[in-house]
Design brief:
Number of helices of chain A: 10
Number of strands of chain A: 13
CATH architecture of the largest domain in chain A: Alpha-Beta Complex
CATH superfamily of the largest domain in chain A: PurM-like C-terminal domain
Largest sheet of chain A: 7 strands, mixed
Strand content of chain A: 15-25%
Strand order of the largest sheet of chain A: 8-10-7-11-9-12-13
Distance between the termini of chain A: 30 Å
Oligomer: homodimer
Helix content of chain A: 25-40%
Number of domains of chain A: 2
CATH class of the largest domain in chain A: Alpha Beta
Structural class of chain A: alpha+beta
Largest interface: A-B, 71 and 71 residues
């Protein structure tokens, strides 16, 4: 496989560049004219670590690589702009598979208004996709960091939890699918393999005055911990109020796991978790509704102190696995 | 090795963020306030493909990963701004080695005014470093693309050729070092392992009116071909005028290779190759001189047509290996 030849074929399939892009893929660097502020993030997925190449369509892998990166822009309330892609290709992955990976990425890029503006392709021992995304805002103050939550703020969550973790269980142990209707199982697997970055919800929450925000990649327990630490506050979450995705309870129980535990510790839901002043809750709900994204659920409150408490209905606390393993 | 713990230690060693950075590493995304235009590029290196981990200090690997990415900004005439780093870490690479990789990168970041503003670290089967760099300019017109060379322009080259290729030969076949003084051999190996991006020279050439520019990563033959194709012109290069690095001739001959061939086809010199109107040659030479970078050598001219001709002193053309293999 020739590098320049492959790059030329990949470039042919790229969506047209957005209005900020003055020089797209194919030169030493892409040239853009940004708005007032940019948000930039890198996310990488590696075969055998974050996905199993045999279990996914190439299009789904390409989709997921871009989706997880864009989710970080959603968590800032940024408008998606450009993506720059590193693709590490092992010898057993042929040109057709590379093009299908790009097709999956390009479809999500089109749907979200993201320009695939550049990249690098090399040989690698395992299929590797590292995506750097650049989002835009008129001013840096419009972007929402993890720091900023204040005691008295309410905690809100977009969409539903546990779907990606249940989907992963179904992919690893196909026999668990008997616990739910086929359509539900398919939806859960899709949550794992084709996450949707909550870009419009993120902009809605930012515009409604979210004081701090993060996307749920590591799981609610871990990510709430990051937000609490960055903001220097304590978070109190009501476990009974957590919105579980349909089928999560059945799959968790079939696997011998506690559903709330799975939902709070399972990663990769890519929902948004935010703090905002109680007076803004109405605005935030309207913004999310208008964005035709997932509904907004209040799940707890911010208090003085530190750490995350996830209170169980019957009393006591949930201790979600706070995994800190390089993966 | 814990991911969050490692990230915290890596972050402690980062140089202070530059003036454009409003929120650095550690949040969902970095926030910057760019100037009028940005140039963005990704470059990746993988153990066993682009370097041999056993042959290099970790610091040199970190340096090279950032240097090759910054070289693309040099080729645009951009001012270096931010870098975002994906680090893929195999199980056999420990925390200390990761920190040393970052130290090598951080030293070059400091020297060039680059902020290491974010990144991602994952497990990977081979040590992988993919670096996205963002450079700045006041306006997009100040940046120099590969397209733009016009018939009648002169072709110029910064610094010297062949050093990195000779250095690679010395690393692969240590016995060849007998052909040159030890100091020369060390300098050639250093050209291979610690390339210096020609950032100030690139800005000088851009300011002096370069019409097209590229950095030499694939080798003069291949990269001149890219510039010729993008500009829609023919390039005529005088092989006798090519500035070979000291010791290249001796090492090439000891390896049974033609020195000019090695210099024109060997990659990774990361010198800049540019076209500019003849009237601007004086300005360009002064700009490079003021930048205290490598001298500027006129090496040929732009003509109507297509393709690259590298004319040998005795008549005939050099046909540098135009490698097109994914690596």
């Amino acid at each position: 496989m020739g590098e320049f030849e492959l790059l030329a074929k990949l470039r042919e399939r790229l969506p047209a560049p957005g209005p900020r892009v003055r020089l797209g893929s194919g030169d030493d660097a892409a040239v853009t004219v940004p708005g007032g502020a940019t948000a930039t993030s890198v996310d990488a997925i590696v075969d055998g670590v974050h996905f199993q190449r045999e279990q996914s369509d190439p299009e789904a892998i390409g989709h997921k690589a871009l989706a997880t990166a864009l989710s970080d822009l959603a968590a800032m309330g940024a408008e998606p702009g450009e993506a720059y892609v590193y693709l590490g290709v092992p010898a057993e992955v042929d040109e057709d598979e590379c093009l299908r990976l790009l097709d999956g990425m390009a479809a999500l890029a089109r749907a979200t208004g993201t320009t695939l503006a550049g990249g690098d392709v090399t040989r690698a021992p395992a299929l590797t996709l590292a995506v750097t995304v650049v989002g835009h805002a008129e001013a840096p103050e419009q972007l929402v960091a993890r720091a900023g939550a204040a005691p008295g703020d309410v905690l809100v969550l977009t969409g539903e939890l546990g779907g990606a973790a249940a989907g992963l269980l179904l992919l690893k142990r196909p026999e668990l699918a008997a616990a739910v209707p086929a359509e539900t199982a398919a939806r859960l697997r899709r949550r794992q393999q084709r996450p949707q970055p909550r870009l419009r919800a993120g902009r809605g929450l930012a515009a409604a005055g979210a004081s701090a925000m993060i996307d749920l990649s590591d799981g609610l327990g871990a990510d709430a911990g990051h937000l609490a630490a960055a903001s220097g506050v304590a978070l109190r979450i009501d476990a009974a109020g957590l919105p579980l995705a349909k089928g999560v309870a059945e799959v968790a129980l079939a696997a011998g796991q506690d559903p709330l535990e799975l939902a709070a510790s399972g990663g990769e839901d890519y929902e948004l978790f935010a703090a905002l002043p109680p007076a803004r809750l109405g605005d935030a709900s309207s913004a999310i509704g208008e964005a035709e994204e997932a509904v907004l659920t209040p799940v707890g409150e911010v208090a003085a102190g530190s750490g995350v408490e996830i209170r169980l209905p019957g009393g006591g606390d949930l201790k979600p696995d706070g995994f800190d393993q390089l993966r």
